[in-house]
Amino acid sequence: MFNHLLSLLIWLPVIGAIPVLLAGSARPNLARWLSLLVAVLTFVVSLFLLVQYDPAGNAMQLVESHLWIASWGVHYGLAVDGISVALIVMTTFVGILVIVGAWEVIQDKPHQYMAAMLMLEGLLIGVFCATDALLFYALFEAILIPMFILIGIWGGPRRVYATLKFFIYTFFGSVFMLIALLYLYQKAHTFDLATLAALPLTFREQAWIFFAFLIAFAIKVPMVPVHTWLPDAHVEAPTGGSVVLAAVMLKVGTYGMLRFILPIVPDAGAHFAWIIIVLSLVAVVYIGYVALVQEDMKKLVAYSSVAHMGFVTLGIFIAFALVREQGNTDMALVGMQGAMIQMISHGFVSGAMFTCIGVMYDRLHTRAIKDYGGVINVMPWFGFFYVLFAMANCGLPGTSGFVGEFMVILASFSANPWIALFAAFTLIIGAGYTLWLVKRVLWGEITNPHVAEMEEISGRETFVLASFAAAVLALGIWPQPLVHLMDGSVAQLVQQLAIHKI
Amino acid sequence: MPTLNDILILLPEFYLVAAACLLLLLDAFMKPAQRPLLHWLSIAVVLVAIYLVIAGQPTEARSAFGGMFLRDGVAETLKVFALATTALVFVYARPYLIDRKLLGGEFYTLMLFAVIGIMLLVSAGNLVTIYLGLELLSLSSYALVALNRDAKLPPEAAIKYFVLGALASGMLLYGMSMVYGASGMGGTPTLDLAQLHNVMSYTTAPTLLLFGLIFMIVGIGFKLGAAPFHMWIPDVYQGAPTPVTTFIASGSKLAAFGMAWRLLDGGMGDLSQHWQLMLAVLAVLSLAIGNLVAIVQTNLKRMLAYSTISHMGYLLLGLAAAGPEGYAAAMFYAICYALMGVAAFGVMLAMSRAGFECEEIADLKGLNQKSPWMAFLMLLAMFSLAGVPPLFGFWAKVLVLEAAIHADMLWLAIVGVVFAIIGLYYYLHVVKVMYFDKPAEGSQLQAQADKPLRVVLSINALSLLALGLYWGPLLGWCRRAFGL
To answer: Organism's domain of life (chain A) (predicted)?
Structure first.
C-alpha cells in the first residue's frame, strides 16, 4: 500500500465520489455518511504520509512513475516533498470539515454537492504531488469543473456571473502556461519537471516562459491586479466552496510558482522578482485598505485573503533578491520558510473565517455587516471562536498568523528596509479591518431583532470550529514540527534559486 | 481488367454497395409493419463492414485498379471510425425517426451510400476517385438533409447545401483540371496523386499549378466547413433532421480530413510551403468566426454548427503543420471531434420527442433536475468540446497545438489558445442552462426510454472521459497510420 500511497490519496476521494453520487437525492443521509466516510479515510491515509515521509531524506519521496502516453513520453509521475506533504494533509483535514460543515446546510441535491467536494479534494491532492508538467496541468485545470458546479448550483444570487467569471478568468491564465509547456517539450522532449529544471534556456526564452507561467499562477493566487474574480467567487460560493477556495485552491497558485517558476526559469525569475515584490506590496497595503471599506463580510475576508497571499508571494520572491543580489542564503531561507508557513496558516485561518461567516449566514441569511451587531450576546461560544480566528487573521503572536508574517517581514528587512516597512503595514491595516469587523458584528447592543433570535452553534458547528481552532493554535504555539517537515525541501528550493541556467 | 486481387482489396466497399442495394429492395417489398426490422439489419450491415475493414487490413499499403484506390493505415483508421459513427447515428436516430414517421429504407440506404462515398474518398489514389467519392457522399447528404420533406426548414437547407456544394465541387473540379494541365506541361499529364507529388520539379507552368491548388483548397475548405467557406454549415445543421446533422458533423468531417490529406500531402506535397500558409489563414479565420459567432446563438444546433467551424480551425492547425506528426494530430482531432459531436447531438436526440425538437439552448433548462444522467452526459460532451482536461477534447487540442509549435508556427498556436478561451464561454453557457437554471414552467423534458439509445449514448459520452484519461493507444494508432 505504501508504494501507491499517493495514488491512493488521489483516487480514493475521486472514486469515492461515485457511490455518493449513486446514492441519489432519494437517500441524502446515505450520501452524507458515505462522503464523510471517504473524507475521513482520505485523511487517515494522508496521516500515513506524515509517517512515511522522511524530512531528512532526499527531496522527492514516495515516487510513483508509470509511462502514461508512450509516444509522447508522458508519465503518470507522483512524488512529494515536505511542502507537498503539508499541503496535502491540510487539504484532507479541510476536506472533512467542509463535509461536516455542509451536513444540514445543503438541502438541495446534497449528493451532488458532496460528490463535487470529494472530486475537488482528490484533484487538489493530485496537483500537489504531480511531477509531470502535463499531468500537473491537466489536474490544475480539471479542478475548475467541480468548483464551477459548486458555485453555480449552490451559490448566492449572482452565482452564475461569479462562476463564469471564475472559470473563464482562470482558464485564460493557464492556456498560456500550456503553450510554454509545449515549447519546453520541443526542447526537452519530456514533461518531467526534474528534467525541465535542468534544461538550459536563454534569457529571452526564460523571460517569455516566466510571464506565461506568471499569468497562470498569478491569477490563481490571486495577485493584484488579476484578483478581481476572487471577491465575486467568494461572495457567491456556498460556505464549503469558499472554504476550499480560500484554504486550498489559492495555494495551488503559489505552489505552482515553487514547482515551475523557481526551478525552470530562475534567471528570469530573479530578473523580474521586483515586479512580484511590488505587486505583493500593493496587495498587502492597497488591498488591505480595500478590505477596510467592505460592507459585506465575505468580501472583506476575501480581500484579506488577497492581502495575506501577498505575503506568500513576497516571501518567495524576496528570497530571489536575497540570494541573487546579496548571496544571503540564510535570510532567503527564512523568507521562504515564512512564505510556506503563511500558506498553511492562511489555509486554516481563512477557512475558519469563512466557516464563521457561513454559520451566521445560515441563521440570518445576510452577509451585510450592518445587519449584525451584538451577536456575542446570543452566541457566546461562537463569539469565542470568532474572536480567536480574527486574532489569527491579524497576526497575533501565539496564533499561526503571526509566525509566517513575522518571518517574511524579517527577510524583507535584510533585503531592503523599505520593503519591510510596507509589508509591516499589514499589522496595522489587518488589525484595523479585522477588529473593526469584530466590533461591528459581535460587540455592542443588538439592534436587529432577528439577531436576538439567533441560536447558539450546534455540536456539529462546534466540532468544525474547534478543529480549525486547534490547528490555528497548534501552529501558532508550536510551529516546529511544520518547520521541520518543510525544512529540507525549502533549503533545496533556495539552492535552486542560485543556479544560473543561461 | 480488374483482377481478383483488386476486388479483394475493395471487398468492404463492394460488400456495402451490395448490402445497400439489397436493403433498398427489401424496403420496397417489405410490409410496413416489418419496416422497423430494417434498422437492425442496417446496424448489422455496418458492423460487418467494420469487421471486414479490420480483418482485411493489409500489413502494408496496397493499391488497386492501377493506383486509383489505396488501402493504407490512414484509410483504414478513418473508415473504421466513419463506420462506427454511422452505427452510432443509426442507434440514436431510431426513436427520433419513429416519432416523426421517417423510419424507412430511404434513411438507411442513403446513409450507407454516403458512407461508401466516405470510404472511397479516404482511399482515393487519384483525382478521379476523390471526385467520385466526394460526389457520392455529397449527393447522398443533400437527399438526407431533405429527408423530412414536408417540414419547412429541411428543403430550404437542402437547396442551400446543394447549390453551395455544387459550386464548391465545381471549384474543386476546375482546380483539378488546372493541376492536370500543369502536370502536362513538361511531362505526361497525370491524375494520379502519387505521380503528381513531384509535379513542381518538372512542370513548366508553376503559376497554373498554384492556381489549381488554390481552387482545390476552396473545395477542401468547403467540405471541412472552414471559414470563409462555412456559410452552409449553420443553415444545414439547423435545417436538417437531427440524425442527419449528427452524421454531417461526424462522419463527414472524417471524410473531409481524409480528402484534404490525400490531395494536399499526397498530390501537392511538393507545394507544402504554399498551402501551409493558406491553411493557416483558413485556420485563423475559422477559429475567429466560429468562436465569436457561436456566442450569440440561441439555437443549440446553430451553436454547435459554429462550434464545428472553430473545431475545423483546430484541425487545420495540425494539417498546416505539414508533417506526419501534424497529420497524426489532425487525424486524432478529427476522430475526437466525431466522437464528441455524436455525443452532443445524441443527447439532443435523446431529449427530443414527438412534437418537441430539443434544439433551443433554453430547451435544456433545468435538465439536471429532470434527468441528471442526460445532463451529466451533455456536461461531458460540452467540457470535452471546450477542451477542459481531463476530457478527450483537451488532449486533441494539445496535440494540434504541439504540432503547430513543432512546425515553427508558435503564433498560430497562440491564436488557437486565445480562441479556446473565447470558445469556452458558450460551452459553459450550456452547462449553466442545464445545471444552474430552474426548469421552465410546465417543462416536459424527459429522456427517451429507448434502451439501446441510452446505453450506447452513455458509453459514447463516458468514452470521452475514459479516452481523456488514457489516450495513448489511440494516438499510437494514428501515428502508426502515418508511419511514425
So the answer is: Bacteria
